[in-house]
Amino acid sequence: MKIGRILLETADGPMPRLVSVHPERKLVLDLAAAYRRQLMADGASPRMAVRMAAAQFPGSLTEALETGSAFTDAIARLHAGLDERDGIPLSDVRWLAPVDPPVLRDFNAFKNHEATAPDVWFEVPLFFKINPSTIVGPDESVVWPFGCEHLDYELELGLVIGGSHRDLTPENARQALFGVTVFNDFSARNLLRYEMDGRLGPAKGKDFCTALGPWVVTVDELDLTDLQMRATINGEQWSEGNSGSLVWSIEEILSYASRSEPLVAGEVIGTGTVAGGSGWELGRKLEPGDVVTLTISGIGSLTNTVGKPETGGWRPQARERAMAR
Amino acid sequence: MKIGRILLETADGPMPRLVSVHPERKLVLDLAAAYRRQLMADGASPRMAVRMAAAQFPGSLTEALETGSAFTDAIARLHAGLDERDGIPLSDVRWLAPVDPPVLRDFNAFKNHEATAPDVWFEVPLFFKINPSTIVGPDESVVWPFGCEHLDYELELGLVIGGSHRDLTPENARQALFGVTVFNDFSARNLLRYEMDGRLGPAKGKDFCTALGPWVVTVDELDLTDLQMRATINGEQWSEGNSGSLVWSIEEILSYASRSEPLVAGEVIGTGTVAGGSGWELGRKLEPGDVVTLTISGIGSLTNTVGKPETGGWRPQARERAMAR
């Protein structure tokens, strides 16, 4: 199944709603609306049907996944009796990022071209964390952060966690995986290079915009070892790769991520960039107004337009080394 | 005011509850219970009073702060007519971490002793992010992560954000700050040193346990430029410092944190370790069973006991450099 989130106009203003996506029928199913209708057909009052539908299908995928298998069980029942009245034409949809993760990590698990990569890159699947407050969805504008002189995309697969797990091993790690989505880890190259000298990892170079979407596809629909990955800028193909070139498997990523710390429902983990999957590797830069589309076979296409450079951000005044020690 | 979270036994099992803390009266006030009682005194039905109290005072400080000034306004009204019947003796309380932050960052804003610190440390207030799923509260056990050979504490001040803000400047940054708490950034020194060679920043060396508490004190009660900070291990003082030795001010931390990315309600930002505020700087290590207490004047004491080393975590098998490029 394919699960997305849309912004729906309501009497209370625009509200996020979970939908299942049916590209072949060119519609999405408003899950709360369909469930409310099903509950009423089974005798629920309108008031209690609304309340139960809001509990099972809130606007947050994280909260929905926290309901456990009740979530997918309820969707399966709705799909068995799919009522076109609850369908919304794909062309009318205003997408949101399909996930609202409580934690956003990004690994470095593909083959890479860095001749100077340190030994630790080959010894453990390294990762860093991104501020999840900076996530955008399909068609949303990409923030061009203050001080950025080289904006870049990164073509990645996003892993969506289905529930709470800890200390997984490659043998049992797949149970943690609900689905996958397209993950564009937008990066400010000059800010990254600058701050990574401080050894605390990416901060302003990554924490401004990560795009996720267009929806989450559950793992039963895909062969995760053979997904074609492609990036086009203004319609021109810049990058191409395949998930089969992962050096650390998805099971190994999940095992290391969960070692002595929990994975939680709704959390998203990027695989890192497929080789050649960024402008940096090609000597190219994004410009304001560029249209960036990442496509992964079996999932779909995630398109974002690069925004205007932000100006007027606060610039720190350097401290005297002698004063600060 | 002082706001904490406790675990309360209910008919639905143990549930988190927000409380205001009154150390001078040796009690906490269960905010949802007090508000329910106030609403009923004003004519609300028991059912609707419970529902409204759960909306204004949920178990999550983040969600409560998302209600805006309604949160502190409601508390002020409750305190004006404080009913001892809603008080719970401090001695009966089982504390939780007072905050459930959607984002957890840690800066490096105090004077430091690293002779070899890179230039960028003195040019911008650097920070990294910690997995907020690993937060513990007062009296909770400290995870000793797999592979850790040098467990350490870090004595820090935690800044709690009150609402959504972006692109703050030192002149207006204080509006973002709801309150402060004690922040113990437990660290696995050998894991940190190892993984930080990979330039992606702290991961397994930090993402296993951060302690917050005992409660959040609102900024109106404190002079943030003169807070005494102290760490004792098994009752012996190891570390001492003062918030006045910050090299980057709290206003500068908030300004940089919010540059081209949002601050959000409930998010927590550590200042970094006060000089001498860790065992690493003193050549000392924590041991299983050690009792670690951090105290900050005007806030309180946060005590945690070090747990047993975890065993049996998954150990990656190194990749051949030639295969991974």
Automatic annotation (TrEMBL), chains A, B:
Pfam families referenced in this protein's UniProt entry, alphabetically: FAA_hydrolase
InterPro entries hit by this protein: Fumarylacetoacetase-like_C (IPR011234), Fumarylacetoacetase_C_sf (IPR036663)
SUPFAM superfamilies hit by this protein: FAH
Keyword terms of this UniProt record: Hydrolase
Membrane spanning residue stretches: none
Residue ranges constituting the Fumarylacetoacetase-like C-terminal domain according to the UniProt record: 107-306
One GO MF term: hydrolase activity
Protein name (record): Fumarylacetoacetate hydrolase family protein
